[in-house]
Amino acid sequence: MSEVVKTRRSVLGAGRGAGSELAVSLPADPGSPRQADEARSARLRFSVVVVEDPAALTEYVAAWQALADSALEPNVFYEPWMLVPAIQAFGGGGDLRFVFVQAFDPANPAAPPILCGFFPLERKRRYGGLAMPLPFTSLALWKHPFCYLCTPLLRAEYASECLAAFFDWLAAGSHGSTLLEFGFTAGDGPFWQALGDHIERHAKPYYVSVSFLRALFRSTGDTEAYLRASVPSSRMRELRRHERRLADAGPLEYRALEPGDDVDAWIGEFLHVESISWKGKGGRALVLDAFSREYFETIAKAAYRRGQLMMLALRLDGRAIAHKCNFVSGAGSFAFKIAFDEAHARHSPGVLLELENIRLLHARPQIRWMDSCADASHPMLDRLWPGRRTIQNVVVGTGRPLGDWVVAAIPLLRLLKRKLSRGAPRAQGPKRASG
Amino acid sequence: MDTDSDLPSKPPSRPGVPALGSGAACAVRAGGQNAGTAAASGVARMSVRIVSDPRELAALLPDWEELSASALEPNVFYEPWLLMPALQRLAVGRTLRLAFVFAADPARPEPPLLTGFFPLECQRGYKGLPIPSVRLWRHLHCFLTIPLVRAGWAHETLAAFFDWLASDSRSGALMEFTLISGEGPFQQALVEALHGSSRPSHILESYTRALFRPAADAEAHLASGLSGRHRRKIKHQEKQLSALGHIEYDVLGQGDDIDARIEEFLQLEASGWKGREGSALASNAGERQYFEAIAREGFRRGQLMMSSLRLDGRPIAYKCDFLAGRGAFTFKIAFDENYARYSPGLLLEIHAIRRLHAQSRTDWVDSCTHPRNSMFNRLWPARRSIQTRVVSTGRAPGDLAVAMLPMLAWLRRKLRWRRSAAVDSNLEIEAERGGMNRLASSADAK
Q1: By the 8 A CB rule, do A296 and A85 touch?
Q2: Under a CB-based contact definition with an 8 Å cutoff, are residues A217 and A361 in contact?
Q3: Residue A227, Cα to own-chain centre: how many angstroms?
Q4: What are phi and psi of B326, to 5 degrees?
Q5: What is the pLDDT of residue A129?
Q6: How far, in Å, CA of B181 to CA of B159, rounded?
Q7: Which of A134, A150, B54, B169 would disulfide-bridge A184, Cβ 3.0–4.6 Å?
Q8: pTM score > 0.90 for this model?
Q9: How far apart (Å, rounded) are the C-alpha atoms in residues A13 and A161?
């Protein structure tokens, strides 16, 4: 089941130059200029297709992947090979819909539409972003249990037109929701620039309900220089000592998954290490839930086939004592999981493996950054990775009656809530333990 | 410390080399705004001093100067040589308080290290609310108000500043970070300082403005912003202009007569719409003196970049930028309206793009312009994000006011819309106008 809303937009301003590196921006591809061909984008008509049946997504997969590969900001979690298995594993309970923004060229009706935007949305009966449910139906970018970034996919050269079409669809109101939350999206870089510009230009009330920093690795070109700048020498000496102690117990080796390796064995090894880590003991390991386990196996295999999987292990006497799994997307990458054997905790095998990760990343200069996907103030990665990226939740009204009013009232409600529950711990940003 | 690809980071604050001038430096681990700060706060004692005595201010100048060069993000407008003349000429009727943040190491005898500079303007109200407030001072010719914060000390400096705001009886209930960067190390330090604190804060405004970033080469940069047809048209305009006389692109050099250039620029600017409107620098004695002072000093320091397009020796377009670290700020542009049909301003900007690609000193140029300046938006595809953020200083009226601001803005917009609905029911146009009104105060009409 799908519906189509035709929208017409004029081009407001020029296209966005994501080609050059801005302050903390994480553009998809540094080389190519991102300026839209203005004459062309003025001619295009943008329309929105809403897919509610996940089975109907298959016909979009090819265009969707192409969009992900040329997105304004890469988000591996919203690539089809990673999201479709998530829908199968975790999408059952939610009211999900998938919004595609397409561009048509009226002068060339035979040409296939260009997919310009992808927004997976979950509809909720209440807005719960404030630790106090408000009785308003809301849409939010879908965040399943293993999704650590919800920046929607926008085609770099038509980002502002695509957002405009998306907001037109929102305003048309067929979704029946009052609020929309861009939760867990990048708070710096080209996506937020485009969103902020759109909101500001249309004088829409918005509220940033959560904003925090998380660790970001940025390649500096040289591992030694990076470590000298980021890790104090006393800490390095300590880690080398740990490495020697481990090596005393048996042959110690760092290994990375390579083409031709048995990926199933690597996945099995990771799951094993995770099960004997503190997560396993806390009952949160992937193996403890059949859906989670299957999801992980599916995406790891898909990523491996696509050349987007990075796995590394620290092995003592042939047995893995630390394991790490990353996903690569364009010029960026995402740290998915890390686990280590609790029995060796005092020798910091996880930190040693993170150092190896830094070396491996420097050996692959095409990967310019890695998102830690960690919480704010992650005790380990914050000390190893001095870079940060901003993650935020932005709430806007959809355009239905009351929406803007509710958004404008949220800070007052929040203050009231805080005054009433004085003494109780304050609501914080969404939490997740990484590794 | 973010890598050197960061927009605002400067050579002294490259990774691993936090530019720390005093003994307290050893307490801070290399790593910039986010890392290793716990050690420093364990050692350094932070303090905030309001300086109003001119002699005291003069004594602080060298430290202030050095802080500007070691700042997390450069802001030429808050460097002493640009701000001191503004204090003298452009601060009439304002209540200003210059807040300096220091870090002292009790274990060492050295004088305290200057780690922050926040020039504040006190106001009796805020957006119609009878609530005393402070904000980063933004004078008529100031286009960015990122406070100067020493790289490696952002965490301690902001914490000390917020503590001071909460305890100081004169600082009011609200603090407005007026025109700060919406991304980059200062914004990140602010997000970190506010995350998990109980201070309500609200982003009043967030938009982008044009930023120059070099491309592979000048032609690639031009091609990314201008269509082939547009470039051919510009070439044609240049040819037509050269049919009128000898045209020449001139860049101010070391031995040139700075006073003559200043006068030329002022006259050209006053000859246009700004002169007619009374908003040219030469229209007002104080502003004129301000410009003369900063242009001379910028020239002396090698931080002024002036270029012009000349027709038979007479300038028909002028451009004046200030350099700071690896960056630059476009201060003013002007052109002779009699030659408008040849787009002399655009020709000069295209020449500037070529020149910027032929040098290696400047990595970025902030256009300092209106977010919808069509010329810069077209010529420079990159953007920088600019924000205005309000934070409660920690008092109950401030908390309430920050929480009420979005509602007040919404009500105001509704009322204004209703009033103008009879005249113009076009939502799009109204929204645009609302944006323009708010932005008019935050951008010099270039």
Answers
A1: no
A2: yes
A3: 26
A4: -85, 5
A5: 64
A6: 19
A7: A150
A8: no
A9: 10
